């Protein structure tokens, strides 16, 4: 026990030592994304917004987790109309995605940094009935404070890569304590469950992946048709959610092996890189137009820069073939399920450890093809653009692959219902609410 307490104090002491860096980090990120300097008080547990309804709190770090939670939030609002949904985020893009997807129907705030005083302020201000952490969010002081306040916290849609498991294993007692203080853990895959169970020394069920339950919005599919009309009848390759260094590799490879009339649409993963990628395209001497101009694409245009947020489904619906970024270089890949749901044939790189099972299943089901490097991607691109039958088969295989793996939301709702019942029982026992006569 003493070693456990010492580990917790050491962790918190390290956070205090890093406090100046927290401010520097916000300033540094704001140089490319000014929104990082907005709502800074929230990162230390001070909030202007409040509500008088029982709160169901979900933590969705950034854009990917927020979009994955769409079906879950819709189900929660329908089943618990007398509750308020609170979404906490870490990044401005996640917060913006929450606003775009849910409007004023949910409260959106930043999750405070994991300082004991900040998380206590957060919990006392909103008094959530339960908390739901999505994917890999394990914050030691936050989880402990919830446990101390008898607030059930669930880690749902949980994933834990081998790399992350090794990192947490450096603090085995602290990690095990936090995982034991969670009300429930439910993993995306058997591999995730095995790693989490080993770290936590507790049973971890498998619920599947919430991302499979998403449905392409009709408005985005219609926008995709509009994009396609702007693009014309040329073959269209989408470079989706690309990361730093990948665009240059791909543009160099395509310049060496040109494909006639090809239009390349580049949508960088992070909006703060839009101008950087635009400069890179210009450096390659390519004629470029921006999505934000909303103009018909000229026949002389070789690259369209997707400098917009929240329109990825539309981009998928408008292209013939997509490459999922973050996988050509060792970034771990990005979510490919949305593309499959839209019926888009896919190319993916070798680095997909953040979405390993989904990537392997997509390849096994014929919805995606792996490429070893940029030149291999261009080679596959050339082959596929000449074979409309294979492209169509890949698109249909993607839709079927997504359909076969739906169902995680149902499991999540059952877990949340159990936690809400437990929370209500605790309140009745403590006398905070009266039981029915």
Automatic annotation (TrEMBL):
The lineage of its organism: unclassified sequences, metagenomes, ecological metagenomes. Residues 39-214 form the 3-deoxy-D-manno-octulosonic-acid transferase N-terminal domain. Keywords: Cell inner membrane, Cell membrane, Glycosyltransferase, Membrane, Transferase, Transmembrane, Transmembrane helix. One of its GO terms (biological process) is lipid A biosynthetic process. The keyword Transmembrane applies. It comes from mine drainage metagenome. PANTHER family: 3-DEOXY-D-MANNO-OCTULOSONIC ACID TRANSFERASE, MITOCHONDRIAL-RELATED (PTHR42755:SF1), 3-DEOXY-MANNO-OCTULOSONATE CYTIDYLYLTRANSFERASE (PTHR42755). It is an enzyme of class 2 (transferase). GO terms for molecular function: Kdo transferase activity. This is 3-deoxy-D-manno-octulosonic acid transferase. Its main location: other.
């Amino acid at each position: 026990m003493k070693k456990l307490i010492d580990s917790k104090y050491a962790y918190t002491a390290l956070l205090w030592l890093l406090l100046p860096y927290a401010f520097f980090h916000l300033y540094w990120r704001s140089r490319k994304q000014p929104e990082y300097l907005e709502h800074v008080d929230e990162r230390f547990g001070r909030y202007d917004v409040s509500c008088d309804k029982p709160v169901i709190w979900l933590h969705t770090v950034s854009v990917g987790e927020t979009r994955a939670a769409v079906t879950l939030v819709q189900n929660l609002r329908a089943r618990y109309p007398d509750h308020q949904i609170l979404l906490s985020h870490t990044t401005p893009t996640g917060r913006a995605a929450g606003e775009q997807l849910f409007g004023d129907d949910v409260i959106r705030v930043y999750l405070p940094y994991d300082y004991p005083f900040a998380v206590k302020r957060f919990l006392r201000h909103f008094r959530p009935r339960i908390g739901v952490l999505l994917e890999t969010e394990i914050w030691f002081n936050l989880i402990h404070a919830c446990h101390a306040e008898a607030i059930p916290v669930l880690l749902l849609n949980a994933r834990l890569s081998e790399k992350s498991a090794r990192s947490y294993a450096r603090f085995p007692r602290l990690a095990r304590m936090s995982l034991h203080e969670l009300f429930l853990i439910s993993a995306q895959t058997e591999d995730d469950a095995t790693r989490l169970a080993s770290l936590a020394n507790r049973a971890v069920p498998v619920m599947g992946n919430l991302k499979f339950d998403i449905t392409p919005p009709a408005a985005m599919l219609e926008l995709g048709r509009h994009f396609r009309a702007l693009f014309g009848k040329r073959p269209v390759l989408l470079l989706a959610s690309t990361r730093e260094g990948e665009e240059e590799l791909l543009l160099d490879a395509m310049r060496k092996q040109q494909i006639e009339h090809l239009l390349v649409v580049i949508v960088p993963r992070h909006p703060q890189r839009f101008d950087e990628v635009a400069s890179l395209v210009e450096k390659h001497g390519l004629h470029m137009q921006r999505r934000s101009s909303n103009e018909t694409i000229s026949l002389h245009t070789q690259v369209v820069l997707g400098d917009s947020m929240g329109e990825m489904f539309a981009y998928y619906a408008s292209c013939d073939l997509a490459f999922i970024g973050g996988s050509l270089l060792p970034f771990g890949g990005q979510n490919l399920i949305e593309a499959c749901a839209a019926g888009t044939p896919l190319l993916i790189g070798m680095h997909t450890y953040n979405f390993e099972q989904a990537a392997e299943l997509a390849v096994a089901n014929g919805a995606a093809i792996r490429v070893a490097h940029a030149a291999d991607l261009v080679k596959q691109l050339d082959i596929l653009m000449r074979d409309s039958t294979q492209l169509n088969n890949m698109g249909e295989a993607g839709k079927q692959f997504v359909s076969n793996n739906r169902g995680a939301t149902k499991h999540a709702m059952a877990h949340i219902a159990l936690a809400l019942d437990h929370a209500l029982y605790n309140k009745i026992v403590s006398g905070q609410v009266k039981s029915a006569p």
